[in-house]
Amino acid sequence: MSSGQGSRPVEGSVLFTNGDTRYEFIQDLGTGRHGELLLVVRPRTPAGAQAQVLLKCLALPALASSSEKYQRTRARLEEEVRLARYLRHPGIARVHGLFEMGHGLCVAVESVEGLSLNTLLAIAQTRGRYFSDAFVLYVAAQVAEALAYAHARTDEAGIPLGIVNRDINPDRIRLEPGGGVKLTDFGVAFSRLAGRLNTTLPRPQGEVMYAAPEALLGAVVDARADLFSLGLTLLEFSTGRHLYDPADLRIEELEARLSKEEREQVLAASVASMVTELPPSAEDAIWCAMSYRSEDVERAAAGLSVPLRDILHTLLRRNPAERFATAAELEAVLRTALARFGAYGGEEAVREVQLALVESGERLAELELPGGEGGISLPLGINLGGPDAIPTRDATPEPRPDVARFVKRNPDEVTTQPSSE
């Protein structure tokens, strides 16, 4: 592996071996938000090529093993892998192991095919129409199911692990080609796992624009913080609006909404955000998180169905005690609301995405598909203008060339799943 300064590996080259498994380079996805190099690789065993895997690689300088930063980085990655032993759910991307190679450390995780909610939001805005409430409720219910599983996990002695994802946002939720929904990352999750690395300073661990108010204020968070982050994600995906981005309000107006005690809390949190080196957007997020009101949620959710609006109102309560008590409770409410729309599942969700791709037409060429996403295509041989076709404003007999960017490069390739530890 390159240290990050030299040339990238060529396609097909072997990055490293582990036992009788070779890991062959496929694609460089660039740099993650923590400075890690993201590589798509294919494990190859004596039985043949396996399913693609994503490597999160941290390049380390020579003699780094003697540094405190190296030890903390290694401990964090090892904790991620150990915690993953308890996260074996179809709605959560699998972590396969930690490898030491060349100039760095790599965590191998499942390479999830499909499109993130962030990409789907961009597609919806490109075509000029958001996805249906049924689509939103379906995706939300699948995410809530995965969170309910994670939040309730215990260790071998039956002691609750207290897992909190801390990074629920549109980039971390992906719709797969078969209609499944997956959380792709628990890399910054909190847990009570024995031997875990203690956080040095209280701060949001994920994207600050989707952090719960208590996380932004440096308070202790629990599973209900994930539910708030999911609420922000769903609101933005449904409407394009974000509570932490009040375009028509100035900081002075937000400040006027706060009591003296609340202003002091915000100022203290803003100072802490600079000490912990949070991005500049953190300060605005802190002000907005403390100053938004129920009417702001109602205004942002205008136009959505009443059940979905009610769910968002409960998710986006500033006080955690006023939100849903658990992700399991949220899932039950979501599935009840979804049932009002009739039979709607993964197949219907994929068809909505297919329709959105067709309706976006040539405007899709303006979108840049993030690395590692794709795989959702129109059914082969479908007659978009036929009586059983997807209803569309602009039907064509074959998928448009620009839609092909979202299609699997080799749809006939069948691979086996990588072996789990």
Automatic annotation (TrEMBL):
CDD domains: STKc_PknB_like. One of its GO terms (molecular function) is protein serine/threonine kinase activity. This is non-specific serine/threonine protein kinase. Its EC number is 2.7.11.1. Residues 23-338 form the Protein kinase domain. It catalyses: L-threonyl-[protein] + ATP = O-phospho-L-threonyl-[protein] + ADP + H(+); L-seryl-[protein] + ATP = O-phospho-L-seryl-[protein] + ADP + H(+). Residues 395-412 have a biased composition (Basic and acidic residues). InterPro entries: Kinase-like_dom_sf, NEK_Ser/Thr_kinase, Prot_kinase_dom. Residues 387-421 are annotated as: Disordered. The lineage of its organism: Bacteria, Pseudomonadati, Myxococcota, Myxococcia, Myxococcales. Keywords: ATP-binding, Kinase, Nucleotide-binding, Serine/threonine-protein kinase, Transferase.
